[in-house]
Every structure is written in C-alpha cells, then in structure tokens.
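User: Run a structure prediction on this.
Assistant: Running it now.
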Amino acid sequence: MRAGIIPAAIARQPWGIILPLIVLTTFGAAVLYSAAGGSFQPWALQHLIRFGVFLTMAMIIMRLPQSLFRLTAYPAYGVLVFLLMLVDLIGAVGGGSQRWLNLGFMQLQPSELMKPAIVLAYARFYDTLPPAMTQNWRSLIPALGLLALPALLVMLQPDLGTGLAITFGAVAVMFMAGLPMKWFVGAGAAAVVAAPVAFFTLLHDYQRKRVLVFLDPEGDPLGSGYHISQSKIAIGSGGFFGKGFGNGSQSHLEYLPEAHTDFVFATMGEEWGLVGALFVLFIFMLILRWGWRVAQNAPDRFSRLLAAGMTCTVFFYVAINLLMVVGLAPVVGIPLPFMSHGGSSMMTNMICLGTIMAVDRWSRRSSGIAG
C-alpha cells in the first residue's frame, strides 16, 4: 500500500503487537463461545468487551513519559503493599482464599497489580544502583526486602501461583541487571534443599495435594487428579485436526473442569487439535519475541530492564498454564493470557504490554522516529 494512504496517526501505532493480540483474543472468544454451547453469554462477549477496554488502557499507558514511570515506581509499590495488608485484614474470601478488596463497584485483587509493580520497582532500583554495585552482596539486602514483603503477604492469602509470578518477575530483572550467576546457582541449590521442609511445614493441605497429584496424576483419577486427567484426555482426543468447532465432548458434557478459565487450552485442543495448539503457540511466540526485541532496543538501562521484566511476566503466565494443562506442572490457578475468561489476568497482561509499548515509543523518540 502506497505511503500517504494510511493516516500517520494510525500507521505509527504498534501494529506488530496489536494485530497478534486481536487474533489471539478473537480466537479465545471463539473457544469460549463453543464452551458455552454456542452462545456469546456468559463468557465470549465479556471477553471481547474486556479486551477492548484494556487495550484502550494499554494505549494510554503507551503515551506516558518515562519520567512518570520512574517517579511512580516506589509509590505504586508502597500503595500495593498497603492494599495487600488490607486484604489480609478485611479482604473478601472466595474459593478458600482471601484475595480481594470489595470497592463497591468492583472486586480489586491487589496481588495481580503487584506482578507488574514489582518489575517496575526493581527496574528503578537497579537503574539507580551503579552497575559495579550489582556484584556486591550488600546490594541484595534491599532488593530481597522489596520482594519478601509482597511475596509473603500473597502467600498468606494463600495464593501460591501469584506469589511465584511475583517472585519470577523480580528474579528475572535481577538476572538481567547482571547479578553474578553463582548467586542464582546458590539460591537454586538452597531452594532444592529447603523444598522438602517447605512442603511439610509451609504449604497448605490442598497445595501439598496438588504437588502429589502432579507427581502421580493417575493415583486418584476421579478425585484430586481429576482435573489433570480430564485435561490430558481432552487434548489427546483432539488429534491432529481436532474434533471440529463446537464438537468438544469433554467440555460440553462438563467432564473438563474450568473449561473456560484455567483449562481453556484443553478446550481448544480438543476442538482444534494440534493445528490449533501450534497456532496459539505461534501467536504467543510473536508477542514474546516482540517484547524481547523492544527490550534489546531500549534506549537506557531502566527501559531495558522494564521491558524485559514485563515480557518475562507474560511468559510466566503462558509457560505455567501450558505446562499445567498437559500435566508437566502442578495446578496453580494461572489462566492463559487473552484466551481464558477473567478480567484480572487480562488487566495484568495488558498493563505489562502497555508498558512495553511505552518503552518501544521511548526508543523511537530517542532515535528520531515520530511516535
């Protein structure tokens, strides 16, 4: 198409990420439509409306200046830690966990917002820390303190999946900030040694059961292992091309639990088969590759750490959910971005992507490209 036909304001939008998101979300809505028995209610229509709202939010975030991100990094972290404390004191209980604050017009889950907030705080911390200081163990003390407080508050809710997501984002920024590899190896070794103790002393009964089910899902296929067993049956029965749109017996006959949320990939795999699964993986590859390229091209250390950390947070969602539904990770209640029904997950991932869009815009401006 010739230059000048498309208005400049439209042409300079980050279509390299917007178009894959539209494709993936639309496909997710189709899966939710089928899971509801061929109806836009109650999931598919809300899924599309939320996407429109949160995409608009991401485009607004994209226009924010870098100075505002730097200025609000620690205040935003502090406000969310305070909200997490309120959750533990007066939060609403649902599904055996205390995770939400009732604001009247909505249920707010501060732990979801902490996932991008911890990345922002760590990017700010390591931007102000001289690079040589990253090799000094004394710099670990404030960094670990920034992570320990929100992670502990989230674990108390209890919400192991979100606690791990917060930790993963923080550790990813620490790794890319240049901390010595031996520290990560040592921490990994310590975690392996401490894991058995944590299993018996820190985890709740239902969390221990999830780990045992992960190790032996066929040991109780009609009880605690039911979710994983039915998920693998659904995916396996799809074969190469799937059973066809609207013909997923596992989800339609309600054998597959949480077919519209945590196990939406299994619902899709049954109807669209390996072809559909590879298509979803390809779209996620495009999204994550775009985020990583933005991080590589970032104009400064703060921007680079921020974009890379947000990309890793989205990656954590995708990787854990996909490993979970095929039985390669314990069930931790992490939805698949832009396909699962749920507003909190989509909001968090859109904040991450909106922030990466902002870094992309800063890079273009620093190189003299209008944006």
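The radius of gyration is 21 Å.
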